Amino acid sequence: MSKEYYARAGASAHYFYASQAGRGSVLVRVSVHGRSGPLVSLCGIELIGRKPSAVEADIIRYIQDRGLDLRMGCGGDISPGDSQVWARAERAGDTSVSAACFCIEDFEYHG
């Protein structure tokens, strides 16, 4: 997998290079950075630039209200149900801020 950083957009694009003939690269994930990324939300939950614990609480409440499953990535990132939207934390100097990843369907996100 390779990653391209787009500083002006505050995002990174992650590509998977398939070895099968003719497939080339496939965009599988976009990461929106907590300090510089655009403000994005999931069903009214602001995902970028907040305290990670506040975002986590909002997502857990959303999951409980709708009877969805909570998924957790290897790094502690969380996702409601099968949305393929992952809330995460990024270091911002001596603290951390919330960030997000958006993955294509069936992509196995590890965090």
Overview of this protein structure:
The protein is globular, with a radius of gyration of 15 Å. The chain is 14% helix and 42% strand. The protein starts with a strand and ends in an 8-residue tail after the last strand. It is mostly beta strands.
Low-confidence stretches: none
Number of strands: 9
Compressed to H and E, one letter per element, the order equals: EEEEEHEEEE
Supply the helix-strand structural class.
mainly beta
Itemize the secondary structure elements and their pairings:
Elements: E1 2-6, E2 11-17, E3 25-32, E4 41-42, E5 45-46, H1 52-66, E6 70-72, E7 78-80, E8 85-92, E9 95-103
Antiparallel strand pairs: 1-2, 2-3, 3-9, 4-5, 6-7, 8-9
Name some characteristics of this structure.
about 110 residues, five-stranded antiparallel sheet, two-stranded antiparallel sheet, globular
Provide a compact summary of the structure.
This protein is mainly beta.
